[in-house]
Amino acid sequence: MDTHIHANETLRTVQLGRTDLHITRVGFGSWAVGGDWAVGWGSQDDGDSVAAIRHAVDRGINWIDTAAIYGLGHSEEVVATALSGIPRNERPYIFTKCGLIADPANPNAGPKQVGAPASIRRELENSLRRLRVDRIDLYQMHWPAEDGTPLEVYWQTLLDLKAEGKVAAVGLSNHDVAQLEKAEALGHVDTLQPPFSAIKRKVGAAELGWCAAHGTGVIVYSPMQAGLLSGSFSVERAASLPANDWRSRNADFEGEGLKRNLAVAEAMRPIADRHGTSVGAVAIAWTLAWPGVTGAIVGARNAAQVDGWRDAGRLSLTDGDMAEIAQVIEVSGAGSGPAKPA
Fold first, then answer.
1. Angle, CA 99 vertex, CA 70 and CA 107 arms, to 5°
2. Which residues make beta-bridge pairs with 98?
3. DSSP element (H, E) containing 151
4. Quick one: pLDDT at residue 292?
5. What distances in angstroms separate CA 4 from CA 54, 89, 145, 209, one per listed residue?
6. What is the pLDDT of residues 173-223, one digit of tens each?
């Protein structure tokens, strides 16, 4: 038995790329638990966050994805608190990210994309301290650097951290095929973390295929498109989002775009009914049905939300289900990218 899985709740695990990590097909995403910051989800109760993380682990989910920038370090601290009462051999893997730096004097300004080696090393030490661990299971560059640091330089820094044993695996988030090629030439890209959902499908055209061909694991984020494909979203709810929720300023959540997106969610409802599950679980399983996708990162702000999507980790959609969703994607004109796997 994998020591990262609780005996009472079995979810199948799969190898993440060529790494030694074997992960459940759904993982806990800790963006929202960071609370209120420039690109936050609004105010969040830390007690609810801790309960949600512990519940996810109790239900057999064996990895948590966070980032130094979420809540300007707060998400990592919350993750550490949630895991502190769990015996070490039963703790989930912890994945975190670097390369986004906030301005402490102006926390509501967007972060800068920084790849300088000294900055990445400083970020790693801070993450290790906040997470209260000696080593990070997967360390990822959050976005391509915009501070003038070439990709080859920041990727070599991550490879060095792996060689030094400070991190077990290294990956890239939000990087395209050309960037993956450049990195792979220096040293293997263990993982890619792209946005992917039935609305945001762009990586289905190239990056997923590249990763499958190169033994690079893929953990997708926002598989429910920030709640749009949860089955509980509506025009009214979008209109009532608070100003400190980043979605209140996003085009996917207003006007005709919102209506098209909600049409895709509605197409998933009869499929959810047939499988005896939730619309959100179908949205997540849709991403997991694509060749190349290893796992999906799903957020939760309380324990009940975890139960709404956990089933996606063992739900297999049929070719018929995928065709049904593809047809609505094409007719509605929602999002962009291929409507189903080639």
1. 45
2. 141
3. helix 151-163
4. 97
5. 13, 7, 33, 29
6. 999 999 999 999 999 999 999 999 999 999 999 999 999 999 999 999 999
Residue ranges per structural domain of the chain: 13-332
Rounded to whole angstroms, the Cα distance separating 286 from 136 reads 29
Give me the pLDDT at residue 4, please. 42
Cα distance between residue 156 and residue 246, in whole Å:
33
Q: Select from 25, 20, 19 the least CA-distant residue to 289.
A: 25
Separation between Cα atoms, residue 224 and residue 287, nearest integer Å: 9
pLDDT score of 288: 97
**Residue 148 burial by CB count (10 A; 0-12/13-18/19+): exposed, middle or buried?**
exposed
Q: What is the value of pTM for the model shown?
A: 0.90
Q: What is the b/e burial string over 20-53, where b = at least 16 CB atoms within 10 angstroms of the residue's CB?
A: ebbbbbbbbbbbbbbbbbbebbbebeeebbbbbb
Tell me which DSSP letter residue 116 carries: -
The pLDDT of 262-283, averaged and rounded, is 94
In this structure, whether the domain defined by 13-332 belongs to CATH 3.20.20.100 is answered with yes
pLDDT (tens digit per residue) in 282-293 = 999 999 999 999
Question: 279 and 229 in contact (C-beta within 8 Å)?
Answer: yes
Strand partners, 160: none
Dist CA 273 CA 217 (whole Å): 31
Q: Which amino acid is at 339?
A: A
